[in-house]
Amino acid sequence: PHKSKEGLLRAIDRYNLADIAVKGKQKFALSRVELDRPGRSYAVDTVRILEEKYPRATFFYIIGIDAINEILSWKKPLELFKLCEFIVATRPGANIRQFKRIMRFPILEKFKNKIHMLEFNNAASSTEIRRRLKKGLPVSDMVPESVLQYIKLYKLYPEGA
Predict the structure, then answer these.
(1) How many Å from the N-terminal Cα to the C-terminal Cα in the chain?
(2) What is the C-alpha to C-alpha distance for residues 76 and 48, in angstroms, rounded to an integer?
(3) Predicted TM-score (pTM) above 0.90
(4) Using 50, 70 and 90 to split pLDDT, how confident is the model at 160?
C-alpha cells in the first residue's frame, strides 16, 4: 500500500527473487501468503496469518530504517509490534535521528526491546541496484549470482529503461 505500482515488479517475480536469494539458507522460509490472498497486503494481516499457521515461531520483520520511520502510518502498527520483533537495517547516512525521535513516542517506547538495529556499512538499497541494472552497471557485489541470472533471463530491468 505504501509503494507506487509504477516500476514495481510483478509479485511472482519478487517472490521468485526472494526464493532464489534464500535457497539453501537455514532458518529462512518463504511464504506465499501475500501472493495467494486477494486484495492489498498489510504487514499486520500477514503476520497474523503466519502466527496462526506457526504458533510457536518467533517472527522477525526485516525493514529498512526509512520504512520504520513511517511505521505509524501503517495499518495497526502497535499490533504489529506485539506480533513480531523488528530488525531495522541501516546504511551509512541513514536518518537515525528521526528513528530515535520516533522511538521516544510513549506509545512506541514500550516496544523498544523488540526493535534491533543492524547497521550495514556497504549495503546498497534496492533503488540503487535497480538504477545500476538499468544503466548496465555491475551489481555482482550486491546480489547473489543466481538472483542476477534470473533478472537477466526474464529481462526484469532492461538496460536503458
Answers:
(1) 24
(2) 12
(3) no
(4) low
Cell numbers given for 39: 486484495
Kindly report, residue by residue over 105-145, the tens digit of the pLDDT.
888 888 989 999 888 777 677 888 888 999 999 998 889 99
Contact 134, 160 (CB under 8 A): yes
φ/ψ (deg, to 5) at 124: -95, 145
**What residues pair up with 61 in beta bridges, in sequence order?**
86
Residue-wise DSSP of 115-138: EEEEE-SSPPPHHHHHHHHHTT--
- How far is CA 94 from each of CA 29, 44, 73, 99, rounded to the nearest angstrom? 28, 25, 20, 9
**Interval 58-110: pLDDT, tens:** 999 999 888 888 888 999 999 999 999 999 988 777 778 888 888 888 888 88
Can you give the pLDDT at residue 58?
Answer: 92
Residues in the chain: 161
In the three-class reduction of DSSP (H, G, I as helix; E, B as strand; rest coil), residue 63 is classed as strand
CB atoms within 10 A of CB 36: 8
DSSP strands (E only) in the chain: 60-64, 85-90, 115-119
Count of alpha carbons within 13 angstroms of residue 111, beta-carbon side: 20
